[in-house]
Amino acid sequence: MPANSRAQSSTQEAQGKAEVRRHFPVTLRAVPASTDPTNFGGMPVKGGTKSSSTLEGRYEEGLTGEADAAGGRMVYLLVRKGQGDGETPVFSAGPEHPDGDAILAFSSRDLAVLYLQVARWDDYKLLDIAPSQFSQVVQDVRSNGIHYLMVDPNRLEQERGQEPQPLLGIERLRDLSGENLYQEVRALGQG
To answer: Which of 168, 171, 164, 172 is nearest to 188 (CA)?
Structure first.
């Protein structure tokens, strides 16, 4: 086989690993204030919510650079643009788990935006979700046979198939509460 054909074949194999297998519909349900640990009686924590429409809110937004980080406790998913909450892409969990499926979860907005830019996915958008809603999404995907979260994946490495992407096994977690999942995603994303 000519060298050019071998290179083309390995490129096609790597791209096959990075292809979207299917999409999973994301449904965000309202969390009652009494069960959401981030909601203290429905009232904002002192200094916790500042509107960017006020002078003070715009000033603080400019200092931190975090325009949409109200509380900063979010997990980011990619979803197809459209009606409703959207559908998130499902990928192969990688060579170590060839039959396993994974959805993408990002610990920071910047990494999610970078992934979208590198992938050149104009028909996708970011979905910022609170830990309590993330818990619901994870339980939904687990009940539908998706057993992994691919945390802060690198799109170029994913396409090349050279480096395994960071995986969080949903089945190995005993605690699927929003707070625990948020901490697990942050820890794996920071590592």
So the answer is: 168
Query: What are the strands, taking DSSP E only, across the chain?
Result: 22-25, 75-80, 87-92, 101-105, 124-129, 148-151, 167-169
Name residue, tokens 């990688």: 94
What is the C-alpha separation between 87 and 54, in angstroms, rounded? 34
Residue 128, class by beta-carbon neighbours within 10 Å (0-12 exposed, 13-18 middle, 19+ buried)?
Answer: middle
**CA-CA distances (angstroms) from residue 106 to 80, 113, 127, 169?**
16, 10, 10, 15
Distance CA 175, CA 3 (A): 50
Exposure string over 101-119, b if 16+ CB within 10 A, otherwise e:
bbbbbbbbbebbeebbeeb
State whether residue 88 is helix, strand or coil.
strand
Q: What is the pLDDT of residues 115-138, one digit of tens each?
A: 999 999 999 999 999 999 999 999
Residues 131, 185: Cα–Cα separation, whole Å: 10
Q: State the residue for tokens 């396409």.
A: 159
Whether the predicted pLDDT of 70 surpasses 60: no
Give 21's DSSP letter. -
Phi, psi dihedral angles at 93 (to 5 degrees): -75, 0
* pTM of the shown model: 0.71
Q: Where are the domains of the chain?
A: 71-191
User: Kindly report the CA angle at 167 between 166 and 172, in degrees rounded to 5?
Assistant: 145
